[in-house]
Amino acid sequence: MMREGVIGDELDRDALLRSIVETAPEAIFVADDEGMVVSFSPAGVTMFGVSHEEIVGRSVGALLPNPHGTAPSCVDVLFPSTDAQIPVRRQKTRAVRASGETFPVRLTTGRFTQARRVFHVGFVEDITRHEEVRQRLEDAQSKLERLTRLNAFGEMASAFAHEINQSLTGAAGSTEAADLLAEQAGLAPDHPIRERLSDSLSDIHRTAGIVRQIRQFLKTGEPQMRLVDANAVTQEAVVLAALSADPKVRITFVPDPALTMLLVDPMQLQIIVINLITNALDAVMHTASPAITIATHLDEAAVRVVVTDNGSGIVPTVAEHMFE
Fold first, then answer.
1. Whose CA is closest to 122, among 35, 52, 57, 50?
2. Alpha helices, H only, the chain
3. Is the bond into 72 cis (omega within 30 degrees of 0)?
4. Dihedrals φ, ψ of 258, to 5°?
5. CA–CA distance, 200 with 186 (Å, rounded to integer)
6. C-alpha distances in angstroms, 29 versus 8, 38, 75, 140, 200?
7. Which residues contact 196 (CB under 8 A, 6 or more apart)?
8. In 3-state terms, what secondary structure has residue 261?
9. Three-state DSSP class for 167?
10. Which of 208, 114, 231 is closest to 161 using CA atoms?
11. 234, 253 Cβ separation under 8 angstroms
12. Long-range CB contacts for residues 79-83, cutoff 8 Å, separation at least 24
């Protein structure tokens, strides 16, 4: 009890609160129950480009316009709850600088009462950079997903082309055999039956040529090889794969500092890494403390990307016969 008294005497709570407000990286404002700003932090001055004197006494809507238009009121949108069970509310919205530029923010609001008056305190975090990074990652992930689908389509198309080519080869052989039988039966080359067989054989050969061109196109698609930072490319793939991971999964990237530039198709490398991580995520789905580690290694003759997880793994009886 004595210690508590000493602490209470030593600390000037008002000075402590002022220090917190003045040094906080987020913009902090206090508004009354009418939504009029009564206090504004230095970080807010920098973030919004407006002076303390210019904003105090004005509606908080000058900083955080109502995203729904004119109704409901800005106060109802920003401070909607009078329920004591919801003392703090967090939301994403948009703010406006003195220049008129709008930008995304994360707003945390709370309520307090002083001298029987209700006040609202708001903490505004500028998440412009965060949103830009998130958008770039989503765009990159969409691009990777499209490329993955295209790769799968290419593999299926190549398989289909092979099967069609086999059928066309058989059809050509049968048609040639039929024409030979017709010739042996004494039918002249200009006989309608032999002319139809000749037309069919020409169509088969033309179709086979188209199929060969498709197979050649699919086979000779050149990878976009270039020198890239292998660790950076792998790390970006790890970040993209982590976007769809359960938050409880601990994903760790361990780059080999000896690995620098690598001649590779970065998109293909990322597709492979993402597929491996996706498999690992499936493997740890029912693990109590799921963890995945992605590591790069520079060996004497090769570069290795190793993905390990603490999932249950393959049942030993199955593993023994996997490659039989």
1. 35
2. 2-10, 13-23, 42-48, 52-55, 74-78, 128-184, 192-219, 230-242, 266-283, 316-319
3. yes
4. -75, -15
5. 20
6. 26, 8, 14, 37, 83
7. none
8. strand
9. helix
10. 208
11. yes
12. 79/31, 79/35, 79/109, 79/111, 79/120, 82/111
Q: From its phi and psi, is residue 132 left (phi > 0), alpha (psi between -120 and 50) or beta?
A: alpha
Closest CA to 274 of 308, 236, 311: 236
Position 71: which residue type? A
Q: What are the structure tokens assigned to 308, written together?
A: 């390990």
Alpha-helix residue ranges (DSSP H) falling in 185-229: 192-219
Question: Tokens for 186?
Answer: 């004494």
Q: What angle do CA 245, 251, 254 make, to 5 degrees?
A: 145
Q: If we measure between CA atoms, which residue out of 71, 45, 74, 70 comes closest to residue 62?
A: 74
- Bridge partners, residue 112, by sequence: 119
Q: Residue 125 pairs with which residues in a beta bridge?
A: 106
Strands 291-298 and 250-254: parallel
DSSP state of 223: -
Look at the pTM and tell me if it is higher than 0.70. Answer: no
pLDDT band at 87 (very low <50, low <70, confident <90, very high): low
| Nearest residue to 138 (alpha-carbon basis) of 239, 256, 27 | 239
- Which pLDDT tens digit goes with each residue over 119-170? 888 899 999 988 887 887 777 777 777 777 777 777 787 788 888 888 888 8
Q: What is the DSSP letter of 313?
A: -
Kindly report the length of the chain: 324
Pairing type for strands 303-309 and 291-298 reads antiparallel
In the 8-state DSSP scheme, what is residue 62? G
List beta partners, residue 91: 107
Note whether 119 and 38 are within 8 A (CB): yes
- Residue 70 has which token pair? 């004119």
CA dist 4 and 21 (Å) reads: 24
Rounded Cα distance between 278 and 32, Å, is 50
Report which of 197, 202, 173 is spatially closest to residue 185, judged by C-alpha positions: 197
Query: Over the stretch 242-263, which tens digit does the pLDDT of each residue have?
Result: 877 888 999 999 999 999 888 9
> Is the bond preceding 80 in cis, omega lying within 30 degrees of 0?
no
